[in-house]
Amino acid sequence: MAGIVEGKVALVTGAGSGIGRATALEFARQGARVVAADIVTESAVETARLIQAEGGEAASVHVDVTDEAAVAAMVEFTVSEYGRLDCAHNNAGILGPLSDIANYPREEYDRVMAVNVTGTWLCLQAEVRQMLTQEPPVGGHTIVNTASVAGLVTNHTIPAYTVSKHAVVGLTSSAAQSYGNQGIRVNAVCPGTIETAMSLPFRSESAAPSPTRIRQAIDRNGLPEDVATLVVWLSSSASSFITGTPVRVDGGALS
Question: 126: Cβ–Cβ under 8 A, 6 or more apart, which residues?
Answer without folding.
Answer: 71, 72, 74, 75
